[in-house]
């Protein structure tokens, strides 16, 4: 990420930074990979390390649904979920690198939340709200990708109900290497640039005390009561912070013949990539076939979240459908869609694809929303 400064910071880091009354602000250094990767320095009104009490540890386990190895389709819009952005989640698919959830939130969070073991990526299917963090606030809307690095303390206030796709990643979520030059700047051929990225605006200081904090760990959530508000920051600078990118600001890369999914890549992590399929012109070779060719996953599992629009290669999917094509089974356009795409000039669609490099497991509790006929839907 690029360097950002918000609010008031001292001229020299790790030096005395005094208030008007002569007392010190408290500097906190937040860094990744020890002291060897990106970091930010933030400045608190009060000491951030004071904990009044250590509360309950609430265990969290995802159980696997053991079954047949087959292509799957889930109608996630039918999930009966409610609550805030932490407790209104349903796990769908997972492995050691990633957990994929669907989230339907209808309540504000009345506590602060920190994910200590996973980076988070929200895709806002619908709804509006305000993401509030120790780095400031970001207003969110339909189509936004919200990237929250682990360690950020946040809460979400809703203007309208939120429907989201959510990824938890055991490794950092980043922009793709091939879009960045040796200095880290997004290059001319990147489908988005720094102007498209929104970073937090620093909020007025919140001086509330006895703050309820929930910390997400691999096996559950630990609760604390903090003496001081983690949102009492008066300034920060660095390259570590939450940020957002709207899917509609992703500029599609097209060609004379069908382009493979890597041209749609939006994010990378150690164990998966995320691609954005957006409205775009189709191929312009006189004999092109706009629909994707049949494909065999050899080294990855493929998950597609169908956000909205006309999905030209699929029958039977609807908004918020999720298809899961595991390695070992060819998949491609449904019958008639391959030939039927010839001559078409444009597609109007939004979809998010996640390709993982390790096999995914199916979480339990999805039987009621699964399309049991999907694996045989390529028969003519």
Low-pLDDT windows of residues: none
Helix content: under 10%
Largest sheet: 8 strands, antiparallel
Number of strands: 29
Radius of gyration: 22 Å
Structural class: mainly beta
The CATH C-level name of the largest domain is Mainly Beta
Assign the CATH architecture of the largest domain: Sandwich
Counting DSSP H or I runs of 4 or more residues, the number of helices is 1
Categorize the overall geometry. Answer: globular
Beta-strand residue percentage: 35-45%
Question: How many domain regions?
Answer: 2
Order of helices and strands: EEEEEEEEEEEEEEEEEEEEEEEEEEHEEE
Mean pLDDT: 94
As laid out across the biggest beta sheet, the strand order is: 15-19-12-9-14-7-6-29
Can you offer a commentary on this structure?
The protein is mostly beta strands. The chain has 2 domains: 4-62 and 80-246, Sandwich (Jelly Rolls), CATH 2.60.120; 252-376, Sandwich (Jelly Rolls). The chain has 1 helix and 29 strands. It has an 8-stranded antiparallel beta sheet, with no helix packed on it. A 7-stranded mixed beta sheet has the order 4-17-16-8-13-10-11, with no helix packed on it.
Brief summary of the model shown:
The chain has 380 residues and is mostly beta strands. It folds into two domains: 4-62 and 80-246, Jelly Rolls, CATH 2.60.120.10; 252-376, Jelly Rolls (Sandwich), CATH 2.60.120. It has one helix at 337-340, and strands at 4-7, 26-31, 39-44, 51-59, 72-75, 89-94, 98-105, 112-115, 119-126, 129-133, 136-140, 144-148, 153-158, 162-169, 197-198, 209-217, 220-228, 233-238, 243-246, 265-268, 272-277, 280-281, 295-296, 301-309, 321-325, 330-331, 346-347, 349-356, 361-362.
């Amino acid at each position: 990420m690029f360097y950002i400064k918000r609010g008031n910071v001292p001229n020299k880091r790790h030096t005395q930074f005094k208030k008007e009354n002569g007392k010190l602000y408290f500097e906190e250094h937040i860094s990744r990979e020890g002291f060897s990767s990106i970091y930010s320095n933030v400045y608190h009104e009060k000491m951030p390390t004071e904990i009044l009490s250590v509360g309950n540890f609430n265990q969290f386990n995802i159980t696997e649904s053991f079954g047949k190895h087959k292509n799957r389709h889930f109608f996630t819009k039918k999930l009966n979920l409610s609550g805030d952005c932490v407790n209104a989640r349903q796990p769908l698919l997972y492995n050691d690198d990633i957990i994929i959830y669907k989230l339907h939130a209808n309540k504000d969070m009345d506590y602060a939340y920190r994910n200590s073991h996973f980076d988070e990526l929200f895709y806002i299917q619908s709804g509006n709200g305000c993401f509030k963090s120790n780095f400031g606030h970001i207003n969110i809307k339909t189509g936004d990708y919200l990237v929250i690095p682990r360690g950020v303390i946040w809460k979400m206030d809703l203007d309208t109900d939120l429907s989201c796709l959510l990824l938890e990643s055991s490794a950092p979520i980043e922009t793709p290497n091939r879009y960045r030059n040796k200095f880290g700047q997004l290059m001319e051929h990147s489908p988005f640039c720094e102007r498209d990225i929104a970073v937090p605006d620093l909020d007025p200081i919140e001086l509330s005390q006895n703050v309820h904090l929930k910390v997400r760990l691999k096996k559950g959530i630990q609760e604390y009561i903090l003496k001081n508000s983690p949102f009492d920051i008066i300034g920060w600078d660095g390259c570590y912070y939450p940020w957002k990118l709207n899917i509609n600001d992703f500029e599609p890369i097209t060609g004379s013949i069908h382009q493979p999914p890597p041209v749609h890549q939006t994010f990378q992590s150690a164990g998966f990539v995320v691609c954005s399929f957006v409205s775009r012109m189709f191929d312009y070779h006189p004999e092109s076939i706009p629909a994707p060719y049949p494909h065999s996953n050899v080294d990855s599992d493929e998950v597609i979240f169908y956000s909205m629009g006309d999905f030209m290669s699929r029958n039977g999917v609807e908004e918020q459908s999720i298809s899961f094509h595991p390695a070992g089974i060819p998949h491609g356009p449904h019958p008639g869609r391959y030939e039927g795409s010839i001559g078409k000039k444009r597609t109007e669609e939004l979809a998010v694809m996640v390709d993982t490099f390790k096999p995914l497991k199916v979480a339990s509790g999805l039987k009621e929303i699964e399309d049991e006929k999907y694996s045989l839907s390529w028969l003519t």
